[in-house]
Write a sequence for this structure.
């Protein structure tokens, strides 16, 4: 049913919120609807679309054959409430009630809208979850028994960030190719782009050398003709990007061997992220007095930004205080979110809650050759959901039901938790006095 001139206001009593994840004192969330329809694909379901507060667009899909559970989706950096990729179909087909929202901001316009804020995602996702649980209880006459949080890229970051922060709201999560901090993510992107410009004249030679030998070491096996000293420095600055979280944890956010072809293929996309985001991340960065040019955004380094800018960017730092099961799958050739973000998170969790805790709660899998998402990841979403459900059952039953994290998902083996400590990423480059990026 389409609401035309009048929006339906839906306010649910706190008495409906009887799920284990939300206590009985939870206040209701008010929303307006513009759409309430019956849809048939991928399975018969009720489709609701509307607004939470005055501007957070959301959708909720309620399958006829409900499995008693909820999947909350958190979107990518460039997405909207409708940008759910393969997650929506996979979850709905399995019988989950499914919900997503635009989280209150939009990448192309946020720089010109001071009322919007990246951190608003936290409030929006909590409100969406509370609202969906109440709506589910009203729709089916029973509270949901379990709530998952799922997403990739920016949504992958938000999944681990929110599952850490709200262990009583979310029973577990799927964190696809996400990062650990806004500062590490966008600082690393600017570093990749400005150093790529230096090696661009030789990128085809670099790609060919890697294709011929996956273990090629450009610092010990020179090209012919050899890379210049500045080009070697620039190449190292892409492979080796030291980063540090607020809590002092250090890791390597460099792009991995085998990702070189994707540096070239996605250079324009990387520059586009910076063009849209740097003016908002750092309002003080105005080298020419106005909005920074493309040449200028490449030179931006958040570690040189004022303290208040760095503090704001670090509000979304992950902590490693994981208390609910989490699955991470990340492409080994990702040029947008470095695979070291997944490796770093694994070691961060091990350092924070111990190796045994990390082994019990966190499962990391690398998809060889995949860049920033792809069909390999999408096809495995149903398997990831099944594995996560088994891990949650195993945790909640103290090992009586369910199963630990699988040794592999698809053909991709689980990465071992080698122990607590800092992460060196894909490989440990020996130190040479080659100069520095910044």
């Amino acid at each position: 049913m389409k609401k035309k001139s009048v929006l339906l206001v839906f306010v649910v009593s706190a008495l409906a919120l009887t799920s284990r994840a939300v206590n009985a004192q939870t206040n209701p969330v008010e929303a307006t609807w513009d759409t309430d329809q019956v849809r048939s694909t991928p399975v018969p379901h009720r489709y609701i679309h509307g607004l939470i507060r005055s501007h957070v667009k959301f959708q909720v899909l309620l399958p006829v054959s409900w499995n008693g559970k909820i999947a909350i989706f958190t979107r990518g950096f460039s997405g909207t409430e409708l940008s759910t990729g393969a997650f929506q179909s996979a979850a709905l087909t399995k019988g989950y009630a499914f919900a997503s929202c635009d989280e209150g901001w939009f990448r192309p316009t946020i720089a010109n809208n001071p009322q919007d804020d990246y951190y608003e995602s936290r409030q929006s996702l909590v409100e969406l979850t509370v609202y969906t649980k109440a709506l589910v209880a009203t729709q089916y006459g029973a509270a949901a028994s379990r709530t998952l949080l799922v997403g990739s890229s920016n949504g992958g970051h938000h999944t681990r960030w929110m599952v850490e922060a709200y262990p009583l709201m979310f029973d577990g999560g799927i964190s696809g190719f996400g990062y650990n901090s806004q500062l590490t993510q966008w600082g690393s992107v600017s570093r990749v782009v400005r150093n790529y410009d230096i090696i661009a004249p030789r990128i085809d030679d670099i790609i060919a050398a890697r294709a011929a030998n996956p273990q090629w070491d450009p610092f010990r096996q020179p090209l012919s003709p050899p890379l210049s000293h500045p080009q070697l420095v620039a190449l190292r600055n892409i492979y080796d990007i030291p980063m540090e979280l607020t809590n002092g944890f250090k890791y390597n956010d460099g792009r991995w061997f085998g990702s070189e072809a994707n540096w070239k293929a996605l250079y324009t996309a990387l520059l586009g992220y910076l063009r849209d985001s740097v003016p908002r991340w750092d309002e003080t960065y105005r080298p020419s007095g106005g909005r920074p040019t493309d040449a200028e955004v490449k030179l931006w380094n958040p570690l040189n930004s004022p303290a208040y800018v760095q503090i704001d960017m670090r509000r979304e730092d992950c902590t490693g205080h994981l208390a609910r099961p989490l699955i991470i799958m990340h492409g080994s050739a990702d040029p947008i979110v470095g695979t070291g973000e997944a490796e770093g998170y694994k070691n961060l969790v091990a350092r924070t809650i111990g190796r045994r805790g990390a082994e019990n709660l966190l499962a990391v899998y690398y998809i060889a050759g995949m860049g920033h998402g792809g069909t390999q990841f999408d096809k495995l979403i149903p398997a990831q959901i099944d594995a996560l459900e088994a891990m949650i059952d195993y945790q909640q039953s103290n090992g009586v039901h369910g199963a630990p994290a699988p040794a592999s998902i698809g053909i991709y083996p689980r990465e071992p938790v080698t122990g607590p400590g800092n992460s060196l990423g894909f490989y440990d480059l020996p130190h040479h006095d080659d100069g520095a990026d910044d």
Observations:
- Residues 6 and 299 are 50 Å apart (CA to CA).
